[in-house]
Amino acid sequence: MSASTPNICVICVDQxxxxxxxxxxxxxxxxxxxxxxxxxxxxxRRAYCANSVCMPARASMITGLTPRQHGVVTNGTNxxxxxxxxxxxxxxAGWRTHAAGKLHLNAWAPGCYVAEGAEAxxxxxxxxxxxxxxxxxxxxxxxxxxxxxxxxxxxDYCFGDYRRWLEREHPGVxxxxxxxxxxxxxxxxxxxxxPDALHYNTWITERSAAFxxxxxxxxxxxxWCSFPDPHHPFAACPEYRALFDASTLTLxxxxxxxxxxxxxxxxxxxxxxxxxxDEDGLRAVLAETYGMIAHIDACxxxxxxxxxxxxxxxxxxxxxxxxxxxxLGAHHLLGKHAWHYEQLVRVPFLWRxxxxxxxxxxxEVVSQLDLVPTLLELAGMGPEALERRPYGGFRHxxxxxxxxxxxxxxxxxxxxxxxxxxxPALIEFDDDNAHQTMxxxxxxxxGDWKLTYYGMEGAGILIDLANxxxxxxxxxxxxxxxxxxxxxxxxxLRTVVRSDRxxxxxxxxx
Length: 510
What we know:
The protein has helices at residues 32-39, 54-63, 67-70, 86-92, 127-131, 161-169, 200-214, 238-241, 263-269, 279-310, 342-345, 371-378, 384-387, 411-416, 482-498, and strands at residues 7-13, 42-44, 47-48, 96-101, 115-116, 119-120, 147-152, 159-160, 221-226, 316-322, 346-347, 349-352, 360-362, 366-367, 425-431, 439-446, 449-454, 459-464. It is of the alpha/beta class. Strand 7 and strand 8 (159-160) form a beta hairpin.
């Protein structure tokens, strides 16, 4: 190992839009620690997720591959152990690897599994099997992580090592996560009573700090610190919920407008429970969500303090990223799925690298798929560290490799402020379980233009983000935009073909 070999700490959150940061000029959130992280490094304000739901996006973040390449195209599909991961590459090169918190690389509920006939596949992150003691620990290494402190699920259905610890050491506290009886002011929005000291965010932070303290001097580490929040249920720790007065919060523009840009989305909305709320309900959701974000921010501050105490802060790459965003009331929607508005697909992407440029707020289009190639370059490795590992061996009975990582390294921009060549970002979404409104869609963001194409219907949405930032006007069938539409469709085709896989998806364990 070189003396300049960096440690790596990736802090991942679930379902947080890029706009919800003080450094990005949000009027209400309180994120002093995340803002300080951005000021000490770089924030890419136009970073886009690889997929608009959890499992595909998370699999992309640890493999560097598109959902079509790694095979996790929708929630409920287990990531195959055959697919190379950044954690495994770093472990093979001498890094000590650890994950704390939510992973969601296997499905958590039987109803979410992709079944083979009548039999659902085995999942190592099966909530019920954990809760019944059928699973007591993950098989190690787990997708490249040599050790894991697991906290799967969210709020009232979290499970794993954290819940086992909580119920053993603090009987009765678990009940504080449960929803009170009666109707809620908005879908999955309620107060909880679990205090900061016993909340899973704090446990994940403490387990992450303990890992840092336990790593042998001189050995580089790779820490994946993953918070389940601010994903719904919208339920903040009481100390942080108290920071926000719901009646004074700024409502997102167009929150009361329930119109959709395509009939197929209107049909989907009719069955979508997260479109059913009024102003009081939305204000409650905002207050709970901002409380959850404030709690995460405090935990990030504690983790940065742990790095400082360890003496490793100056030698550690720190990344803050979300798997995807959250509509959070925009266009009268909560949650995620098939509406690729900016609130859903744009994610926070903060970087601090040893010796890097500080104070960069950059507006180039970048992708979550850039995470892995950037980490590899900062670690002194290339994409071949993943590409040369076995990838299932499907072609002619031999070993094959993926066609290359679809993302690019951002290291030159982080280290020296170098400009980035304009490059589009691709977002995928595939859903077979949507109340008879099956969706196959691809979104491409290229500069100030965004195209979403619904392949099964042959319908599309074309948005001029520069002149229509609230995404109210679909220009797909506008004769004045015919050339732009043709250019974007061609760019989408090129991007999809370039990032397609050479082999069928791995079958995975059954």
